[in-house]
Each structure stands twice: as C-alpha cells, then as structure tokens.
Write a structure and sequence with these properties.
By secondary structure, the chain is α+β, with helices and mostly antiparallel strands. The chain is 36% helix and 28% strand. The protein contains four helices and eight strands, in the order ααβαβαββββββ. Strands 1, 2, 3, 4, 5, 6, 7 and 8 form an eight-stranded antiparallel beta sheet that branches. It is elongated and about 85 Å long.
Length: 209
Amino acid sequence: MFKTPVRGVRASGQAVRHAVAGLVLIALSVAAAVAGSSVWNGAPYPTADPDAVAQRLKDRSDTVYDDFALPERYAADSGSINTGACYYRGLRGITHIDQPRRDVRSFGLDWSVPDIPEATARDAQRRVRERLMKQGWKLIHDGNRAGATFRELGFRFEDPEGVDQIDVRWNDSTTTLFISVYAPCGQVPDEFEEYGWSEADWHPNEETP
C-alpha cells in the first residue's frame, strides 16, 4: 500500500494559508489607503467643461429674458460670466482654510434690466416663477421683503438635478431687475484661462456687442 505524504500536504496547506493571508493584508491595506485618501481629500468635484457650462448659463439667461416678456422700451444690459473660488474638501480643507483650489471653479452670469416699474417687475417675475415651477425647479429662497422705507421682490430657484440656480431680484430704490444664473464648483482643465475667455460674454437676444 502507498502511504499519503502527510508532511508534504501540511506544508502545502500552510503555504496556501500564508498566501491567502498575504492577499488579505494587501487588500486591507489598499482599502485603508483608499478610505484614508477619501477622508483626507473629501468627495471629488465633478469635472466641468467651461465652454459647455457657459453655453448652458447663457441659454438659461435667454429663457429668463424671454419669460420676462418685457415691452421693447425696457432693454437688458449685457452680462459676463465670472468664475468663483472653490475650496478643498475633507480633512485637507482644515489645513487649507480659505485657500481656494486653482483647478476647481464655480460659474456665475449676472445681468440686469434697468428702469422697471414695480408692476412690470411683478408680472415679469411671476412669468419666470411659473415656468420654473412647471419644469420642476425648487424654490430655495423667497426674497419678497418690505419695510417702512424699502420694498424688494425676488426669489431663487434650483434646477431639478440640484445643480444650477437662477436668482431674480428687484428693489424700489434702483427699479432694476437683477438676474444671476449660477453653476456649482467643477474641476476645470489645466489649460483653462478665464482672462480673454471668448465664451464669457452674454448679449440679450443674441445681439452683437
């Protein structure tokens, strides 16, 4: 009869166990490193194509301007898209307090329509508000306020995806409709340069400057 090589089987079994244990330790180390990086850096910012974001904000501004349906004598001023600061997330943000990231920017397009009477401003804002609500936008701020010496009308809506925001304001001291359209922070390409950015300018009704 043949005898089973018990010693060889035991040695082989130990080698397998050691190999498995080593793989488990490596996996745990990788997981710990990934978790540590996530805690340190926080959630990553989404990538952003500045030109695409600019076009989206301009399209939203066109729609708001059309919704206003103002008489021709009230002309909107042109606007320009500016970028805003965005900061480090996670624990890294604690060590970089008030230090903005160069590769992450927010976007905002501001424009206005001057010399608007209150009744006209109310009607214009009502039309914009109704359209946004029908499209599922969420009201996140109601800016209607009145005091002994001032009166303000306004609101801010956020799109259904929780991304862009539209802010519309009017006050009786300036009689001007102020419009701001925002896009949140996104990581921009290294080659993006805001100075001289050709896509930044917006003109109502595609007017040429």
